[in-house]
């Protein structure tokens, strides 16, 4: 399983952020670089050089139960996507229970720091033959991790939720067995892609649901692009502060010069931010659409899709994003929290935060 490495050439991100390369071009370029591989069963990570051009929705070959060791205890997990996100339409996977050995991973702080704990657990616990874990959509990953957490450490999941009325934090416990899958009724084509007709242009878009790897790339792009936003804000504030200092009647000329000199010391920082990404805005919407959309009116050319997305009507963009969000397969993490009598009693609804920290501080 190939992961994003801090050693990537940020120039690729720079070009993607400035539209010289599409986001998918960047995706393919990244896979040509030296990347970190998840090596099981050890916790140590080794860098390898891997030729692995990205292809969406790689086929899942059917797994054979005969190839699973009799020593491994596992269960068959139905996937929230019903298998519609994959070419092979695999709608269930064999997942082994966590063991004492797996706690070596769970208690490794570096895996949390690097954001690798879930990826390691998936590689360790999802069984079967030729299953490309990178193609698992995020909702299916959530379901697998939910199974591992509930069956290994019990259904009780302690949380701290913020009461929307009082604003105070409320301690509670969620029964993980009460969480259900979202209703998912979409049917994909033979490639695991879904079709949507844009309401205004009437163009037909095919898209896919994003994976963990997609989200890692989006996070990296957004982080770099936000540097341009920070640079713009800092420059504006320095300019405003300089004007205020110059017009101030309480400061002496010497004090004014010292303050202005100190403000000018931020220039190297600004230049460093701008070199990362000069654009003074984030492209979170178009970046996500570029990774999601696989064709427009059956045209799969990435340059065409990138240009189309930049010029897509606002309503078409909004409705497509809303359609993808509302129909994304996964676990329904909406929960109801009992409010203590000291805060008036009753209950309130909120969403359970489900991220890489669900195993933290357990073992």
Largest sheet composition: 3 strands, antiparallel
Mean pLDDT: 81
State the helix count.
12
Strand order of the largest sheet: 1-2-3
Estimate the global geometry from the Cα principal axes: globular
What's the order of the H and E elements?
EHHEEEEHHHHEEEEHHHHEHHEE
Low-confidence stretches: 1-20, 30-66
Instruction: Compute the CA-based radius of gyration.
Output: 24 Å
Strand element count:
12
Supply the key terms.
363 residues, alpha+beta, three-stranded antiparallel β-sheet, 39% helix, disordered N terminus
Can you describe what's shown?
- This protein has 363 residues and is an alpha+beta fold.
- 39% of the residues lie in helices and 15% in strands.
- The chain contains twelve helices and twelve strands.
- A three-stranded antiparallel sheet has the order 1-2-3, with no helix packed on it.
- A hairpin with a 6-residue loop joins strand 6 and strand 7.
- Helix 1 packs antiparallel against helix 2, helix 1 packs across helix 7 and helix 7 runs antiparallel to helix 9.
- The longest helix is centred in the middle third of the chain and has 36 residues.
- The protein is globular, with a radius of gyration of 24 Å.
- The two termini are 26 Å apart.
């Amino acid at each position: 399983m190939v992961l994003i490495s801090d050693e990537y050439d940020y120039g690729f991100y720079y070009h993607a952020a400035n539209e010289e390369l599409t986001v998918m071009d960047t995706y393919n370029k990244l896979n040509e670089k030296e990347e970190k591989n998840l090596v099981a069963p050890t916790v140590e990570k080794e860098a390898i050089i891997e030729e692995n051009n990205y292809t969406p929705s790689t086929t899942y070959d059917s797994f054979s139960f005969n190839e699973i060791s009799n020593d491994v205890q596992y269960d068959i997990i139905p996937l929230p996507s019903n298998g519609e996100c994959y070419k092979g339409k695999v709608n269930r996977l064999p997942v082994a229970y966590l063991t004492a050995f797996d706690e070596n991973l769970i208690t490794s702080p570096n895996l949390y720091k690097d954001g690798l704990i879930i990826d390691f657990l998936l590689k360790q616990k999802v069984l079967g033959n030729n299953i490309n874990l990178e193609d698992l959509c995020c909702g299916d990953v959530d379901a697998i991790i939910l199974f591992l957490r509930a069956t290994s450490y019990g259904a009780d999941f302690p949380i701290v939720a913020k009461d929307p009325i009082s604003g105070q934090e409320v301690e509670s416990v969620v029964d993980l067995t009460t969480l259900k899958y979202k209703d998912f009724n979409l049917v994909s084509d033979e490639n695991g892609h879904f079709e949507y007709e844009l309401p205004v242009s009437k163009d037909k878009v095919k898209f896919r649901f994003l994976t963990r790897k997609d989200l890692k790339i989006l996070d990296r792009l957004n982080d770099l692009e936000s540097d341009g936003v920070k640079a713009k804000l800092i420059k504006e504030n320095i300019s405003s502060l300089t004007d205020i200092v110059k017009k101030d009647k309480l400061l002496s000329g010497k004090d004014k010069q010292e303050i202005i000199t100190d403000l000018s010391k931020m220039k190297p920082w600004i230049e460093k931010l701008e070199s990362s990404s000069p654009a003074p805005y984030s492209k979170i919407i178009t970046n996500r659409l570029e990774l999601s959309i696989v064709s427009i009116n059956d045209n799969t050319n990435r340059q065409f899709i990138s240009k189309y997305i930049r010029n897509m009507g606002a309503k078409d963009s909004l409705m497509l994003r809303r359609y993808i969000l509302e129909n994304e397969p996964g676990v329904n993490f909406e929960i109801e929290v009992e409010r203590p009598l000291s805060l008036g009693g009753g209950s309130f609804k909120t969403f359970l935060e489900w991220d890489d920290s669900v195993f933290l501080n357990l073992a």
